UniProtKB/TrEMBL annotation:
This is Ubiquitin-related modifier 1. InterPro entries: Beta-grasp_dom_sf (IPR012675), Mopterin_synth/thiamin_S_b (IPR016155), Urm1 (IPR015221). Acts as a sulfur carrier required for 2-thiolation of mcm(5)S(2)U at tRNA wobble positions of cytosolic tRNA(Lys), tRNA(Glu) and tRNA(Gln). Serves as sulfur donor in tRNA 2-thiolation reaction by being thiocarboxylated (-COSH) at its C-terminus by the MOCS3 homolog UBA4. The sulfur is then transferred to tRNA to form 2-thiolation of mcm(5)S(2)U. Prior mcm(5) tRNA modification by the elongator complex is required for 2-thiolation. Also acts as a ubiquitin-like protein (UBL) that is covalently conjugated via an isopeptide bond to lysine residues of target proteins such as AHP1. GO terms for cellular component: cytosol. It is found in: Cytoplasm. The gene is URM1. SUPFAM superfamilies: MoaD/ThiS.
Amino acid sequence: MAEHASIPLTIEFTGGLELLFSNQRKHQVELPSSNRSPNVADLITYLCDKLMKDPRKDMFVLDGTVRPGILVLINDADWELEGQETYQLQPRDEIVFVSTLHGG
């Protein structure tokens, strides 16, 4: 029996971040997984490469991770409690990115 080729996730963007993602708040994503479980860092790369249509990637990421001022929730818990980028994603996890930055 083959391992999961992808992990189904629910991704949500709020606080203005949805503007960077085709103005759509909620996305169902099938994150490809190779020989290891992908983590949040892999998800962030995937979102920038595959889902973000807006050229202003620096509004979402800075130095390879989400920029300061963006709150990340993993299944309704602050990602700082879950290990941040190193959290191993599980099927049907819900990841919410909330911008606390206003203006522009």
